[in-house]
Amino acid sequence: MCAGKADDNPNPASNPVELPNRPSAGASVAPHPQSSTERPRSKRTHTSSGEHRPKSHRPQSERKSRAGSSSTRPPKTSEHGGRRSSSHREHHRSRRDFPAIQEYPEDRAIRRGVAELGTFIDQHVVSFYPSGSSGYSGMSEMDDPRTRQPAIRRYVAQKVISSMIIADSESSPSPTKIAHEIADDLQVYSSSNGDRLDNLIGLCELGEKLRIDMEDHPASWSFGSFEEGHGNGFVVLIPALSRDGQQVVPSQRFRID
């Protein structure tokens, strides 16, 4: 039986290898020196995905300059560009440049004031000048008990309108001065002074307010004549009020029986 062919070249003899002597268990082992070419391992941080990301080693001065430095932040701008503060100032400046709209009293305020003047005069006369008093001043309509109160109303209204309403603002007397004149002229018909003077001052102040409202209004306001219808059984208490020549409030009259 034939066997396999033997190799023509026999294996060379093995050379013995000398191993270094291992230290015994009690001997100390010197640390292995770190090679100068070996780079230190950087610390890695974990991201949300689980990957390791090396920390940034930026200089400390650069990190400080980036954190919260007000000198390096750009100024805030508006949507259309430019500094926001300057556009804000320009907006306020443009609003101040608009001319102010002049306001003036409404027509109804003046009409209402004239109606109130007539009502307050009626209340004043009824409160302080009774028709049964025995006063005498030489004025026939006031001396007559039948026409006394209407005549006193007319006198008070005429005094307030001529002195406080249609008078010029620069030469118009004070309400207190006119109130004293009316109080003195009607003293003989008054049953008691009481608050009569204070009431007259209030009437004159109302007349002064009406004058101011009429002067501030762009239209022209005027009163009619107290002599209208006089002698025909009527006494004009408050004459008609006109605006730019057109009557807007009729006269207040009192019929004498």
TrEMBL record:
It comes from the Eukaryota. Residues 1-104 are annotated as: Disordered. Residues 49-65 have a biased composition (Basic and acidic residues). Residues 83-95 have a biased composition (Basic residues). This is Uncharacterized protein. The lineage of its organism: Eukaryota, Fungi, Dikarya, Ascomycota, Pezizomycotina.
